[in-house]
Fold these 2 entries.
Entry 1:
Amino acid sequence: MFQKILIANRGEIAMRVMRTAKRMGIATVAVYSQADRRAQHVLAADQAICIGDAPVSDSYLRGERIIEAALATGVEAIHPGYGFLSENPDFVEKVEAAGLTFIGPSSKAIRAMGLKDAAKRLMERAGVPVVPGYHGETQALVALAAKANEIGFPVLIKARAGGGGKGMRLVSDPDAFPEALAAAQREAKAAFGDERVLVEKYVETPRHIEVQVFGDMHGNVVHLFERDCSAQRRHQKVIEEAPAPGMNAQTRAAMTDAAVKAAQAISYCGAGTIEFIVDASEGLRPDRFWFMEMNTRLQVEHPVTEMITGIDLVEWQLRVASGEPLPLRQEEIMANGHAVEARLYAEDAERDFLPATGTLHHLSFPDHVDGARLRVDAGVTQGDTITPFYDPMIAKVIAHAATRVEALNGLASALDATQVAGSTVNLGFLTRLLRDEDFASGNLETGLIGRKQDALTRIPTPAARHVAVAIAATSGAELEADDSDPFCALAGYGHFTTMSHRRELMRGEEKVTALVSSQRDGSLAIRIGESEATQPIIVRREDAARAAVWPGHVTVFEGADSLTFNVPDLLQAADDAAGGDRLRAPMPGLVKLVRAQTNEAVKKGQPLLVLEAMKMEHTISAPHDGVIAEIASEGAQVNDGAMLVRFEE
Ligand code: MV4
């Protein structure tokens, strides 16, 4: 077994790989970009090497720098995680040429599966069912149009180098074919530098079911059952589970046999996934699934397989990469119960899932839920920042129980009890999807999320009760913006004080005022509005757990949903305490353009940046002459009250 490995990745997957390495007594080396200097994976590793600036092309995609770091730290092997260099055969060859082991398949296996058309031809020869269609070399319009007619409309044109739905076009009738083909080719050329396409029969009610496979250097290949990843939004997986809902013994046997055959055909070594598209219009049937592609890496959703099999897939990766045989034979691998994973993202579901950024001033996960085993794979902790440079996934939350219903309920409860403040997140969207009646009954057809998007992304309007909790949480805490217990500052209030304090919050553009007075029992009486005669809402000490106060803001949690208010007083207090004056975002938005830089001297009235918010562009100009100490990054998704510019004192 290796004594020391380098992890060529960041975030949750770097943390995940390190966890197993540590358990096995293997030393770890992290690599990081300037933006990740204080990231969890850097802190968790035994050693860490900076490999460049924030953009991925300057850091996590720089194979040479990573190999240099590996050689300098004396590791024996490199684990690529997923994404970045994990499926780059040139990188694998360079790693091997440097005398190191790549913890993953051979460059040959990656190449064999890298292009969809070649992979389908290979699989067809190996006797694996592939999606009916044309995956040959010819690319002439007349030839492809004739093939489309033979296949029968509707057809789907896909880029052979594609992924994530890029270069994909659905064509319903022959007249539309030439234009759709040209569009797909243009898009493929621009995205992948390869304009070649394949044409497939369009599967009308598809499910995405994939089989986890594992191979070793001794010619053994096993499967670890299937996962269902049908719940997708614009080709991004949202919820994954194992086993697939509605799976039966015959279909499972046929799919897992085909997956093992596929891996054997390329002498596959390591963890891999065979993706099938399934026609689920009449249930799951052994003759209605077809190979789509193979992912030659460990996948994001691997934890659901780990939960049902009890197998640590990273441990197996390390063992087979170091030459050991697979730890178990096929008949020793069992599946138990049901596991479901949700991807917690910093994104704004209400604004068409725009990626969000921000500092996670408050982040907490429940450590258990009733009726299910819980697992949280996170790459960040409270106080960390989601930057615009990388994938904004915060964590994966996974629940395992005896049945699917219990696992779904357990996961929804866990997400209800998860609190995030400082960035917009998709918690509410996830719980609404988990509790959707179609989703819950296993109707995972492709269109589900799109069809129900409005209902799934609807955010509750603030009730008086939420406002009262927000007001209470910020009362007396002006100077302790980061205090996690907003009520401790109330000690100074006399028990018999009846005098009320006027408080003010902003919800977007809307001002909310309230009168606050403390009660004998330590609770607060909150009157919304300006009148002492209004019936008060009583907020107790225990309710503090339902709110988080952070610089300039207070967030109230209601199940998986949250409501964030701007606290003008808190913002002023935070600025005064920190010194130097700042310009803050007047509303949530996207930093569209940045026209000034750090250390630049600017004149009063000079445009500094453009914020796109509420579908309009707002130019933020310098309020006075000064020198810029800090400025927001272009592309950043910011909350209202977020700092855009800080001037030097
Ligand atoms: C398909 C398809 C229907 N017919 N291929 C390819 C990329 C992947 N993200 C989804 N892909 C699809 N390929 C044929 N011949 C439908 C999809 C598809 C899909 C499939 C399963 C589950 C969810 C899906 C969401 C969108 C598109």
Entry 2:
Amino acid sequence: MKQIVKDIDLIQSAEGEACETVKTTQEQNTGKSRKLYIESYGCQMNFSDSEIVAAILQEHGFDTTSEAQKADVIFLNTCAIRDNAEQRIWKRLRELESLKNKKPGLLVGLLGCMAERLKTKLLEEEKIVDIVAGPDAYRDLPHLVAEAEDGNKAVNVFLSREETYADINPVRLNSNGVTAFISIMRGCDNMCTFCVVPYTRGRERSRNPHSIVQEARTLYERGYKEVTLLGQNVDSYFWTSHPQITSLNEYRKALKRGEDLSKYEQVNFAHLLEMVAQIAPDLRVRFSTSHPKDITDEVLYTMQRYDNICKYIHLPVQSGNNRILELMRRTYTREWYLERVAAIRRILGNECGLSSDMIAGFCSETEEEHRDTLSLMEAVKFDFSYMFYYSERPGTPAAKRLQDDVPLEVKKRRLQEIIELQNKHSLERNLMDVGKVHRVLVEGYSKRSKEHLFGRNTANKVVVFPKENYEIGDYVDVLVEECTSATLIGKAVGKWTP
Ligand code: SAM
Ligand code: SF4
């Protein structure tokens, strides 16, 4: 059992620490003349974007490949959220240099947040880069590739107020055939002072809900059993049939101007969740990320009404101290956050999975303020968290106006304390699941043993059990018998069919 547990912990970290994960394209042979290889770094949104990019280039003569050596075009879909994410890309470009020297016609493009942040500077500093495209410029990629093939450097970092790629049917990459991501909105209007996202992904805009439902329905018809609705702040999802309004902020401004909007269709996040949940009872619905300032009881009650909306919420708190939260411009307080957690527990019960993001050592954070983060963690007991130390990002309000004055070794020590406490809480929370039966959607085989399957329960916890006659894509009721801080381990008691 020890070996399996180790293996399973690996699965958890590969999936869980999304920010450290790299995903690459798989081999696809539909007879197209050229090969595209994409490496995607960073968040789920980037992985979802790479599927849009693959779909756009498929229409223009490209199949994907899993080997950079075979590619005619290599894209790195980049992340800029912390400095180490960018350092990884610089290192990867050095490695690709030798490949390019061997294959002179090979084109290398940088996509995503780092491309948007550094723009033409990338072309100046990196001779091997031929194409730079920001997150709103992917429709232009066929043209940018053609331009680069003509020997020119090609750049498009235009940020749009409308682009949602609603009409693009993504090519599913790295697919297990069971779970898929659907982007429901793009950009962010929140302006947290530490964060580069509003500058690299532009203004918030919500995608047409009917195209989202259609995408989810098509996935279901192709055998998928779970969709995750993605946005930087899904709770501010808001769509109206008014042709000029693409976000909640614009809608509020129009109301203030006294415009009559009653004749337009309006869909908020709770409505959207319901629309997707109604597709089929055996299509699970997840979503990420929720924002503490915006998550409503209406969303929580919608989750309560539908068994197929998973009882799991990623609700990043960042800090447990009010002065730091204000400096971060998160626009909620510790008390507000704890009240939202109380509402989750009241409406969805103690079993609802809850996770967070935490930043250690933000500008001017004192030891006492750091301890407020630890005490908030004690009060909530998150199932797991993504934990970081603060990394100053050029151009953000914090970089312009605040001093990054907590020494690196202090940041690292505080982060370590946060990680240790989280591990303790994860184990405590998992121990509560032992002895109970959990419904698991099977996603794949355990990496080292084809004799074991793994999947997730509704609270997003990884569950591993002996395969017997069960298959990937089955819903299996599993009696959990033991656990680690990352994994529940048990045995199947039966298959569930709706
Ligand atoms: N939209 C989500 C929210 O508001 O919670 C988060 C999106 S961001 C891509 C993911 C996480 O990265 C953040 O929640 C934050 O914890 C972390 N992060 C963002 N900027 C950071 C920075 N400059 N230094 C360290 N961590 C950072
Ligand atoms: Fe960044 Fe804040 Fe927007 Fe999240 S809500 S993407 S942390 S600005």
